[in-house]
Records
---
Amino acid sequence: MWDIVRSIFPYAIAYTIPLLITALGGLFSERSGVVNIGLEGMMVVGSFTSALTISSLYPIMGNSAIWVGLLASMVLTALFSLLHAFASINLNANQIISGTAINMIAGALTVFFARNITGSGNIRIVTGLLRKNIPLLHRIPIIGKLFFTQTYATTWLVLLILLISWYVLYKTPFGLRLRACGEHPQAADAAGVNVYFMRYLGVSISGAFAGLGGAVILVTYSGEFNGSVAGLGFLALASLIFGQWKPLGILASTFFFGFASTVANVSQVVPALSNIPGLILKAFPYVVTLIALVLFSRRSQAPRAIGEPFDQGKR
Amino acid sequence: MTEKIGKKSKGPLGGFKAPVIPRPVVVGLSAVILGLIAGAILMGLTGNNPFEGYQYLFKGGLMSVERIGDTLATATPLILTGLSVAFAFRTGLFNIGASGQMLFGGFLATAVALSWTALPRPVLLLCILLAGIFGGALWGLVPGLLKALFNVHEVVCTIMMNWIAYWTIYYQIPKYFKGAFLETESAKIADAASLKAPWLTNLFDGSYVNYGLFLGIFAMIIVSIILNKTVLGFELKSAGFNRHASEYAGMKVNRNIVLSMCIAGGLAGLGGVTLYTGYAGNIQIGVLPSQGFDGIAVALLAANSPIGVFASALFFGMLHSGKGFMNAMTNVPPEIGDTIIATIIYFAATSVLIERVLDKIKSKRRGDK
């Protein structure tokens, strides 16, 4: 059993990280009061941007092209997310429809461009990030084997972002204001907070993070852009809800989902797991989320004003 | 949302009695035009001639009897998923799960079509239809129940249901109905067990068009009657406008929510039947049918009216069936079709923008008088 856990652990973490960063992005958007079901599409845009940047810069810059690609995907996806922000904040559009449109535009537009560039619609990158052991720490018994061997640099980057996000949301005036916009925008407005600006910021942070999530998939385990992230954006949304809109809750739920998905992915080759039907493992996160929704329905921690366009005159 | 779209323009134009085009039609057409303009810009940006591109796109959908038949066949699932989304919308529910509902309904229908081949054709077809409707309705029942009993948001719930359907089909098809050549699809459904109609195919010069089209038209009429002529339809719409007022008036809102989601799911399931046992002839794994999401576009563009759904489904069907021909004749990738559809949804979602512009034009005109 220990051997199985140890051998799939690095994969589970690699799978968790893009989920985590994307769900964290969703957290910023939804805490500011804007529902973001466009996470899936934003991940696709991130994956596309990084694939394009890395594949074109790699001959010139070598491995540092990867980091430029990650940065580019954050910036471009943040810009792309402004489409959603504009529709939901300025035009009072139904945020769910706008998010759906975002998903569809992202899926179609990126493949459209990719086909113009490569012909096939797929973009390969020459090399992704390498897995590295963390010096000294990887020698700690048990923990070292699980957490500090064969890790990607992006894993640590994302965990750092998680820490910063937690601090920003709960320990700074900015975080308080952002959360106020999602709970009671009229009160925030009365206190002098620019609700529109905060929501724009929330949505663009979600875009940047989701873009990073898509890019992380590309530079860690996929290595190829193919126009989809296989529902990970929706899984991130599920983790956001399952984690009850809290950073640490999200960390726990994304790891839980990441681990479950990895178990499902490798169950064919691990004899001890092959008895469990793949369907149960794969559908597990979604069923669990449904159950969680029911269990939490009485005391859901969802932001109060989520999905509501800001109406200054409302009380 | 629905309120705004449903509202008819009052047109306080004084003595001016020109035929007033209803506001939703104007808004829908504007969204279509803006989407087509966006598509033209994209074609131009990638070094193609937009006029040539559109010429082949429309030709590909309409230039011969066969291609018109293919357009109708492509539009058929869209009519049904569009009706599904529109029906739920009228009750104030957002059914983003049409994809999963059509997948599960289509799965049951395919299972029946592949297993009960001994039955005489009319009975078999009836069983296939019922299986599809049942599967879709079941997939709509769960979000409906959770919404009614626990106030769980139907959007999140239907998204989860989509993926549960996705993985169910992913594992069950290879296990029980594996195809002869590929692991990723089910066995081919025999012509006798499918919705294929030789006389229709001959009428349209060998096109894909099948009995599904009649199902779509029939469903459109039924939905129209339910929504506009029955007590149930009135109660459903009433719940969509104001849930609390409906409850106060003594309507069983919770029951109606469940019922509405079941009917919406059933319609989408029927869409799955027309897609898998009519248009495609088997079921693929690892794909959430895009028709489910296009259904949102169809419903939105149609302002949730059944006849509008029919019209906009035909339009989207034409885009989808013409894009292959355009891709063959020019360098424009077929994804331009999906991009145009996605852009149209975006503009339909932000119809406030279009309405503001229209209001401005109107007030300017009035100012001139």
---
Amino acid sequence: MLRRYSIQLILIACGGLLTYVAYEELLSLYTLSVLMFMGVNIILSSSLNLVNGNMGEFSCGHAGFMCVGAYVSSVLGVWLFTKDKVFGVPLLDPEWAIYAFPFIILVGGVAAAFAGLLVAIPSYKTRGDYLAIITIAANYIVISAIENLGVIGGSRGFMGMKQVISAMEDVVYLPWMPIWVFVFTIFCVWAIRRYVSSTFGKGVNAICQDEVAAEIMSVNTNKIKTVTFMVSSGLAGIGGGLFAYIIGYVNPGSFNILKSTEVMVMVYLGGMASLSGSVLSAILFTLLLEALRPLQIIKWIVVPLLLIIVMQFRPEGIMGNRELSDIFPWLKRFYRFK
Amino acid sequence: MTETVKNRESAPVLEIRNLTQQFGGLRAVSDFNVCMKPGGLIGLIGPNGAGKTTVFNLVSGFYQPTSGAILVNGVDTAGMKPHQVTGLGVARTFQNIRLWNDMSVLDNIRVAQHGKLQYGFFHAIARSAHYQTRESQIEQEARELLEVFDLQDFADEYPKNLAYGTQRKLEIARALSSKPSLLLLDEPAAGLNSSDIRELIRLVRWIHGHFDVTIWMIEHHMDVMMELCTHIKVIDFGETIAEGIPEEIRNHPAVITAYLGDEII
Amino acid sequence: MLATIIQNLINALQWGSFYALIALGYTLVYGVLTLINFAHGDIFMVGAYIAFFVATFFLTTAELPGWAALALTIPLTMILTSMVGVALERVAYRPLRRKGANRLYVVITALMCGLILENANLALLGASRKAFPPMITEHVYNIGGVIFTDLKIAVIVTTILAFFVLHKIVTKTRVGMAMRAISYDKFAVPLMGIPMDNIIVITFVLGSGMAGLAGIMFAMSYPILEPYMGALIGWKAFIAAVVGGIGDIRGAFLGGFLLGAVEILVVAFFPSTFRDLIAFTVLLVILAFRPTGLFGVAKTTKI
């Protein structure tokens, strides 16, 4: 019994510890924010892995969907719960923010999922490098569309999300951001794992390995592609929403191709189609970036160089296409990874 | 209810009327007709490039015909995607084995039941009771099928690691996992050695008896066809040149001409 | 009215020239290796910087007259830029290719190489922009309301000439034949006694040389250099190559000019901030209707 629920218990313990530590301010604000970015990066890399790893497509525009989620949830939160120059008085009592916050993030995710259709529909007819272009174009389209939306700040960016968080803290004083980042990270990984381990979701792997055989063997490839792209971009939207509320400020420039590249690097570093690899590499990559922060601009020479070296010696990424349980079989006693 | 069952029984499993397929200037299949009663084991032969696989591709919905109609169990498949055609009860294997090589053998069988999952994305995420029952049914059916094909020992193996003959067998098992009423076998003996071929003949005959399925196969090994099929159709350059029972085909002048050329006769 | 059209046409051709030249490099490498060389935009940037240093050297240290400096700068820049491209191939791509790594890992390596080029430049030369020294004096002509400079015309003419030379190489020479053969069948070509690696090096030389040429002309036309100039223009040129049908050099050439024309037209009618939005949307629509690009041949799946 204990064994069966051990993972759940560990997670609850971790969440409790994180809340306690953040509440008592035992960790510096910096450490806490690194931990939160780690969570966001886990969401981003594992959701992109669904498309690039499991489905074998080559999406290079993940940050575009993140951007949609970030803006939708930011604008929604600010519009509903804060006094803002543009939107005027709050539409709802700011006290409600505490209940509405997860839904605001989810709405951002749903909006991003629909933005994912921008890529999903062309993917019916085309794949590979042509689809890669479509994702790049989609990323640029999202960014330049927001740059041209003067109402929400255009290229100057949009802010006011900190007020939503403080409205939540006014009702019950808890470290809300770490809590929600933790909850959503667990939710995303959990949802992806359930999706890819179901027979329904294994259709995704079938498409990757032989699309023709999949279609003829009764897999509705268009439907699976649509669902997968929507799930992937929707989770990216959730990650984007959290990212926006952590920083308290968004601007389109932070969701450019460079950001997409960063996420892509995490996926390939972890190993394609390996969920635990994505999680692991997101953690490592976040730590690496933070550790090299003192190098300033040199950081962006050292990091790519390290990656190139990793690719030379371990071209399949950290985990290959295996899960943690394939490397450490004793883990299977606690948890089924596949 | 009994009425429809009766109708189904009498209705042909597959009916093809005046099927024509044009690729640019090439007429790959021309005015092809067939009507299959349930329970047959029919052969389709012809020289290389005669359009045999094209016919299979048309039937499985991979190509849309230039003209003509294909009816599976009485339903016109015009405009249908391949997975919908499979849903009507057509399953097939491929000339070059197309298994999902990086998925376990068991998963290969499970995914082939995708058409009748009866649950969607949200059930899968929520792991609802419905999902649990369906998933365990699917797994059980898949394991039973593997056992029937004597593949149970390979359930967790990857197909790419299996012997060629076993892969062929697995591909047939995968096709049968969607419980088709019509099974299309595209050169199942290609690349097999003579003892594998003997086993294949036994296997096909046994499937035909055991699974209540109509089999239509393409094969170049004449002995396989002569031994298995009750009826053979011969095409060349997309046109039907002969059909009948194996003995008739064996001595049919048009068939001999098509395979060996005019000079011999 | 006619003057406006011709004016925009000249602008579009000149602006499209840069895209076309860079797209040629993308498409050459893709055609031979099916590798999206994402570092190519940055090779263009490096080309512009190399041109800057070479030109400065000839003008100030060697004190050559402008035309002589230009005549020396163009070939020297092209050669040096080619060497950068070949170096990338040797150091980063070839070992991966030898190991038979998944194509996507090579693509990631290419992306990383691009980042290194950008940031190494930033670290070495600092964030300040460089002003490109003028080598020749531009003359402005005004014919019937159409205003253009001799430089603009020179850019367009050079690009078209470069394309025809490249086209000749690819279609008429033995090397070109080998390049096309590799793009058809990677496995049979070495068996036919064609030295794969040499052909691949030549491909990178040609592609990077074109990027170097684009770098000089860009620096002469818009004489402000900064390390990130290659990134956006590179991505756009790549998209242009795909819209043309990647792997086909005619497609890349036309795709480049098409993208230039779309951008110039957008700026002529809308606020310039809409340029990327509309340009990318147009490309997306084109790809939606012709998924393999204008010249691309749809791959038929055989079963």
